[in-house]
Amino acid sequence: MDLRERHHRPGRRVAPAGPCSSRGGSAVGSELVQRYAAALGARDWDAFAALLDDDVVYRLPQTGEVVRGREAFLRYNREFPGAWELTVLDAYGDERGGVLHGDYGVGESQIGVTVLRFAGDRVAEVVDYWPEPYEPPAGREHLTGR
């Protein structure tokens, strides 16, 4: 089952770029990027947690937020306000890490680029880049540091 099939639900956009390609990388790294995108997009928090290193670090350069640890990163994602869905535009990976280019918008496009660094078969670091700097949503200070 490829990424498009896993995310296809009535009313959902389907990733036009198809599953990850290795682009000269490794099949294992590409598979890890694909599994990360699939679990995040489906909000399958158990599958998502299984991909993360215990000490995963999540960074948002535009807001200065940093989230440390698997449980904190899971909570950050579970409690993220507002509607969003993930449409994968392009993705690839190798044994060291990967890149996910996606649209997280509902109605209006919200393009983001995610850079992943791996520690073995787990995601050890995630850095999300968004088009413009912005202040983090109010009421989430307990989930992040700066």
From TrEMBL:
It comes from the Bacteria. Residues 33-126 form the SnoaL-like domain. Residues 1-26 are annotated as: Disordered. InterPro entries: NTF2-like_dom_sf, SnoaL-like. Residues 1-12 have a biased composition (Basic residues). This is Nuclear transport factor 2 family protein.
